[in-house]
């Protein structure tokens, strides 16, 4: 059955209400049900019934001067129950204070005077409907993205980001908080011999068994493929005793999947605390792995070192920067060697600090280790798009495995492009050299989806680590950025010169343009131009800056 959609008109004058309904029925009657009410109280009953049925109310048109509750008061109240509904005040007697009240507190979409112009009214409602469904589409995409960020897509259990978000929530109060980590050590063996799909069925069975065993004694988190957490309000010794019973059951009984038995070996650790509970338990888990202990290892102060403490404190700073939106995009110009002008800029992440800014070399590895790299990447993309929305430049943004592994990432990008009104052709996504497509089956699909949107793709630091020739077949890049280690050796190193020439010929042969990174002096730049490299980037032209 097709979902109904409603336009609601409220006015205490019968003939005005009748005329309004008839006009709207002629234009919108085939797609929308036009409901009328002669008072705010009657309208509330209609709206409550429609809300209960889960159906859309794109537009409400309300008079100001009515018996009982006034129009502005009704619209403010409506904002609390239907924030996305577009609210139009249609009246000839509304004082400026009432209109201002509705604007400030009821998110008034438009004010139209009586008598109204029919064409103006119809156009206003059409625009309001379009705005409602655009907002609804963006909201649904953001909800889909939030689910992908905070829940494991295969098992639907809350993931690492969900755990850290809860631990850091200042509104949550815990009298006692305990955490257990479980590392499945047979994960690589199962993957190697039976594949990822069989392992996911096994881990789903494992998580279900653990949840049933714990009952109300803790919440299970599927942090990573081989790592599970249990968060509990119980004392640490009680939680450990409960999970110890599960460990003994797991040791005695295999998990049977389609008449094949699988025995899971695990390491276990525990800790207490608040925001640092996970990191303490992780140190204890490292200890369990290092000593190859199948028994529980509980955190103690002896496990911590100055190095660990520094990393932990920096990880706290990273998390706080994400929460406070202090991930700042810096920009470095990419010079067009034909026009000698900056036509593109690369967006580079920095963290705002009381002493200045932290460079990626300081925080990137820890961000990857804790999983916060995902949120850094999303803030960078959103911040960069916001910065360039009104500037006539192309810009590029780095992508890590954290973004590429999500199937919904390209949909989120599409939503942000629409939000900022940016032509996808202006955006290039740079695939970092440490992204392994073999380990993330969704990566190539995500890249192709981004190209279908109209975005461009660059291979960053070409020539090192995973940036091999097979990657060209998988990606079909628009740009190849030659790793700075080769560029720095020009023009005095013959081997570097031959390698760069080979990369340039290869790139041009497949229709890709070339960017030379780390251009530091005029001699190198002249060699680059002579080789036919289209773009140059480096400190010779511009250091990374907060503004273009």
TrEMBL record:
Residue stretches making up the Response regulatory domain: 6-129
Keyword presence, rRNA processing: no
Record domain EAL: where: 311-548
Residues bearing PTM 4-aspartylphosphate: 63
UniProt GO molecular function: cyclic-guanylate-specific phosphodiesterase activity
Keyword entries, A-Z: Phosphoprotein
Record flagged with keyword Cytoplasm: no
PROSITE patterns the UniProt entry points to: EAL, RESPONSE_REGULATORY
Pfam families for this protein: EAL (PF00563), Response_reg (PF00072)
One GO BP annotation of this record: phosphorelay signal transduction system
PANTHER family: CYCLIC DI-GMP PHOSPHODIESTERASE PDEF, OXYGEN SENSOR PROTEIN DOSP
Name of the protein this chain belongs to: EAL domain-containing protein
Organism: Leptospira idonii
């Amino acid at each position: 059955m097709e979902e109904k959609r409603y336009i609601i008109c409220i006015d205490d004058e019968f003939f005005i209400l009748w005329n309004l309904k008839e006009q709207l029925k002629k234009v919108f009657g085939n797609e929308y049900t036009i409901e009328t009410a002669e008072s705010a109280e009657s309208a509330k009953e209609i709206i409550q019934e429609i809300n209960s049925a889960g159906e859309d109310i794109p537009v409400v048109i309300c008079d100001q001067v009515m018996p009982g509750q006034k129009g502005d008061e009704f619209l403010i109240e409506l904002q609390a129950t239907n924030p996305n509904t577009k609210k139009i005040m249609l009246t000839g007697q509304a004082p400026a204070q009432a209109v201002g009240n509705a604007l400030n507190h009821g998110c008034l979409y438009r004010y139209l005077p009586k008598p109204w112009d029919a064409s103006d009214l119809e156009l206003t409602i059409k625009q309001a409907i379009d705005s409602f469904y655009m907002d609804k589409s963006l909201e649904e995409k953001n909800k889909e993205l939030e689910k992908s960020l905070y829940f494991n897509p295969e098992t639907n259990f809350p993931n690492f980001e969900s755990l850290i978000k809860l631990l850091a929530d200042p509104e949550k109060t815990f009298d006692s908080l305990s955490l257990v980590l479980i590392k499945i050590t047979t994960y690589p063996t199962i993957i190697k011999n039976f594949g990822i799909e069989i392992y996911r069925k096994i881990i789903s069975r494992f998580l279900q068994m653990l949840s049933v065993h714990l009952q109300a004694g803790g919440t299970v988190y599927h942090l990573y493929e081989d790592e599970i957490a249990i968060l509990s309000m119980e004392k640490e010794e009680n939680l450990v005793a409960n999970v110890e019973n599960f460990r003994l059951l797991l040791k005695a009984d295999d998990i049977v999947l389609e008449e094949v038995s699988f025995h899971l070996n695990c390491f276990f650790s525990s800790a207490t605390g608040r925001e640092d509970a996970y990191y303490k338990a992780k140190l204890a888990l490292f200890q369990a792995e290092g000593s190859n202990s199948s028994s529980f290892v509980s955190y103690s102060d002896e496990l911590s070192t100055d190095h660990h403490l520094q990393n932990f404190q920096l990880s706290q700073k990273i998390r706080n920067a994400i929460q406070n939106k202090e991930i700042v995009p810096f920009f470095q110009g990419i010079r067009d060697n034909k026009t000698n002008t900056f036509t593109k800029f690369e967006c580079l992440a920095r963290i705002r600090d009381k002493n200045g800014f932290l460079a990626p070399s300081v925080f990137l590895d820890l961000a990857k280790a804790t999983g916060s790299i995902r949120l850094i990447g999303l803030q960078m993309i959103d911040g960069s798009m916001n910065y360039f929305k009104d500037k006539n430049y192309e810009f590029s943004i780095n992508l890590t495995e954290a973004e590429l592994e999500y199937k919904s990432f390209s949909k989120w990008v599409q939503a942000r492009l629409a939000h900022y009104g940016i032509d996808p052709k202006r955006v290039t996504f740079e695939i970092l050299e440490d992204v392994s497509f073999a380990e993330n089956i969704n990566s190539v699909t995500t890249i192709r989806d981004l190209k279908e949107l109209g975005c461009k793709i660059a291979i960053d630091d070409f020539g090192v680590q995973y940036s091999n020739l097979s990657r060209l077949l998988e990606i079909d890049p628009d740009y190849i950025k030659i790793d700075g280690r080769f560029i720095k050796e020009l023009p005095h190193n013959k081997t570097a010169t031959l390698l760069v020439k080979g990369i340039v010929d290869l790139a041009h042969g497949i229709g890709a343009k070339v960017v030379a990174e780390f251009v530091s002096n005029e001699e190198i730049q002249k060699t680059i131009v002579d080789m036919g490299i289209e773009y140059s980037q480096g400190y010779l032209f511009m250091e990374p800056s907060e503004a273009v």
